[in-house]
């Protein structure tokens, strides 16, 4: 199917396919509310997991596993971990922002019909660490690539995904029986949703705003000035995702 959409000469997608890719990227949201109770079909979930499994990985290590959690009682115990972790995080938030922090909805653990933990098995390529000898954390980055693939494919399928990182990692590992050498990289709330917000929740609530892309571009070396033409183009397209 995808092959039909590939331009035979340059390998680029046709315009509709390109737009679909950018649409998934620019309309993807971190979702914590608006979850519908409808279950996600195994056909859909399998496709999303396949997208995750096709992420790039250092040394083709494929360090990930996917723990599917449907049991509500187990999810309630994870949500208790979230409540405890949020209390622990609160004093470290700037005082003037604590009231807003308290009001923010930062998880949808029980509202979503299923949770997914994407883990990284740090021992999977121990004997031949291609690409990891100098930078052993590359397996964690690879796992994050799998999470992003899942997130984008989910958006295309109308499935909402919310990442919950406000969790004590050790407590989560204990609760889910995750062995020592495996890191739970992402705890995701997954489900069909009634809507996808146009802007990030944290932007809508005045917590943060998207930084201007042009301000983030450097030339040749860190903090290097230059690339005026590129920055001007970047400034022109920011905020208008599709060509
Ligand atoms: C590594 C990571 C951890 C995150 N942890 C949380 C979290 O614990 N709770 C939450 O509400 N959102 C969490 N988010 C979502 C971000 O707040 C969100 O991506 C950001 O505000 C931009 O919004 P958008 O994803 O809708 O574009 C996390 C995102 C990432 C990438």
TrEMBL record:
The gene is bluB. CDD domains: BluB (cd02145). This is 5,6-dimethylbenzimidazole synthase. Residues 26-192 form the Nitroreductase domain. The keyword Oxidoreductase applies. The lineage of its organism: Bacteria, Pseudomonadati, Pseudomonadota, Alphaproteobacteria, Hyphomicrobiales. GO terms for molecular function: 5,6-dimethylbenzimidazole synthase activity. Keywords: Flavoprotein, FMN, Oxidoreductase. PANTHER family: IODOTYROSINE DEIODINASE 1 (PTHR23026:SF90), NADPH NITROREDUCTASE (PTHR23026). Its EC number is 1.13.11.79. InterPro entries: BluB, Nitroreductase, Nitroreductase-like, Nitroreductase/BluB.
């Amino acid at each position: 199917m995808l092959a039909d959409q590939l331009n035979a000469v340059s390998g680029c997608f046709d315009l509709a396919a390109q737009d679909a890719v950018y649409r998934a990227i620019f309309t993807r949201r971190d979702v914590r509310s608006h979850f519908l109770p409808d279950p996600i079909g195994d056909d859909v979930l399998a496709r999303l997991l396949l997208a995750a499994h096709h992420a790039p990985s250092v040394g083709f290590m494929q360090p990930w596993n996917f723990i599917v959690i449907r049991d509500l009682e187990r999810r309630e115990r994870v949500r208790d971990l979230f409540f405890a972790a949020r209390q622990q995080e609160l004093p470290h938030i700037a005082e003037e922002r604590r009231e807003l922090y308290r009001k923010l909805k930062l998880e949808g653990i029980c509202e979503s019909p299923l949770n997914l933990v994407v883990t990284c098995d740090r021992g999977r390529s121990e004997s031949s660490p291609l690409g990891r000898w100098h930078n052993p954390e590359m397996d964690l980055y690879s796992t994050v690539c799998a999470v992003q693939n899942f997130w984008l494919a989910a958006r295309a399928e109308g499935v909402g995904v919310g990442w919950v990182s406000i969790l004590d990692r050790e407590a989560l590992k204990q609760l889910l029986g995750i062995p020592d050498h495996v890191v739970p990289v992402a705890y995701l709330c997954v489900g069909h949703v009634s809507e996808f917000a146009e802007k990030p929740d944290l932007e809508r609530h005045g917590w943060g705003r998207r930084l201007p892309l042009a301000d983030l571009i450097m030339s040749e070396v860190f903090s290097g000035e230059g690339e005026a033409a590129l920055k001007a183009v970047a400034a022109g397209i920011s905020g208008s995702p599709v060509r």
